[in-house]
Write a structure and sequence with these properties.
alpha/beta, Rossmann fold, 2 domains
C-alpha cells in the first residue's frame, strides 16, 4: 500500500493542529523539504522564519530580513516534513548541539509508529510506503514505477507542433523539461511513435534521465495511432506486465482509465490526484 499526502493535505493538517505547537520565538526549517511546513507554520503563528544553517552559524536574521533575531530568541521550533529512521533529525540535533542559550523543540509533520519518539511532537502518523507531492520525483519508488513522458518529464506538444513532421521533430529536440527525476525509473511509457525512439532517447540522455525500459507505440504514423490506438489500454497493459507498483500519468482521464483497468495505484501529476493505494 502506498500512502500519499499532498501539499494541501499537509497544509490542512497543520492548520487543524496549530494548537499542538508549543510557545516558540521562531521557526527553523530543515532544508529542503522541511522549509515548506516551516514556512506555513511561521506564517500562521506570525513568527520569524530561519533555516537551521543560520542557527548553526549564529546568523539570526530571518529569511525575509524583516526582523533581526537577537538574544530574546530562546525557544526555536525545528521543523522537517517527515521522520522515518530519525537519521536526518539526529544530524540536525548534532549540528545544533554547539548553539548556546537556545532551546530547540524538534517537530516532524509526518512520522511512523516506530519513529514518533524521535521528535518532540508530530502532527500525524503515516506508515511506509509513503510519498509526498512535493518530492514524488525524488523518491526511490521511481525504481518500481511506470512514468508517462509528455506532460510529466517534459511539456506536451501543442497542436501546431504535433504535426508528425518537421515541427514535431523540432519539438522532440527542444521540449522543455518539467519534472526531471533524481532516481532511475523502471519504465518510461509514452504514446510517442516507435519511429521517434532515437530522438526521444537523445532528449532523455540530454537531461540525464535514467530508466530501465522505454516503451513506445508501434504505429506507422499519427493517423494510424489515432484510429487504432487506445492510450489507456496500452499503458495499463504495460503497467500490469511490468510488475511496477505505481504509474505516474499526466492526463486525468487516462489516469482514471489506467486505474480502472489495473486496480493498481496511479498518480496524476497534472491535477495532483492519487488513485488507489
Amino acid at each position: 500500500m502506498l500512502n500519499f499526502r499532498s501539499v494541501d493535505d499537509m497544509n490542512q493538517l497543520i492548520k487543524n493542529k496549530l494548537h499542538l505547537i508549543p510557545d516558540v520565538d521562531c521557526v527553523a526549517g530543515v532544508p529542503r523539504s522541511g522549509m515548506l511546513p516551516a514556512t506555513l507554520i511561521a506564517l500562521y503563528l506570525g513568527k520569524p522564519l530561519v533555516s537551521v544553517e543560520s542557527l548553526r552559524y549564529g546568523d539570526y536574521c530571518t529569511l525575509t530580513n524583516r526582523v533581526k533575531l537577537n538574544s530574546r530568541v530562546r525557544r526555536v521550533l525545528v521543523v522537517d516534513d517527515s521522520c522515518s529512521s530519525g537519521n536526518a533529525m539526529n544530524k540536525v540535533r548534532d549540528m545544533l548541539s554547539t548553539v548556546k542559550n537556545k532551546k530547540f523543540v524538534y517537530c516532524a509533520v509526518y512520522v511512523t509508529e516506530a519513529s514518533k519518539d524521535k521528535v518532540d511532537f508530530y502532527f500525524d502518523i503515516v506508515e511506509q510506503w509513503r510519498m509526498w507531492e512535493w518530492n514524488i520525483m525524488d523518491h526511490l519508488v521511481l525504481g518500481s514505477s511506470c512514468v508517462d513522458m509528455d506532460g510529466v518529464l517534459c511539456v506536451d506538444p501543442t497542436d501546431e507542433q504535433n504535426d508528425d513532421g518537421e515541427k514535431y521533430l523540432k519539438f522532440l529536440a527542444e521540449a522543455k523539461p518539467k519534472f526531471i527525476p533524481t532516481h532511475k525509473i523502471k519504465a518510461i511509457v509514452t504514446c510517442r511513435l516507435e519511429k521517434y525512439r532515437a530522438e526521444t532517447e537523445l532528449w532523455l540522455k540530454k537531461y540525464d534521465v535514467k530508466y530501465d525500459k522505454l516503451y513506445m507505440m508501434d504505429f506507422p504514423d499519427k493517423v494510424s495511432r489515432l484510429k487504432f490506438g487506445d492510450h489507456a489500454k496500452y499503458k495499463a497493459d504495460i503497467y500490469t506486465q511490468s510488475g511496477a507498483v505505481l504509474f505516474i500519468e499526466s492526463n486525468s482521464l487516462q489516469a482514471s482509465n489506467i486505474y480502472f483497468r489495473t486496480n493498481k495505484p496511479v498518480y496524476c501529476i497534472s491535477d495532483n490526484t492519487f488513485r488507489g493505494g
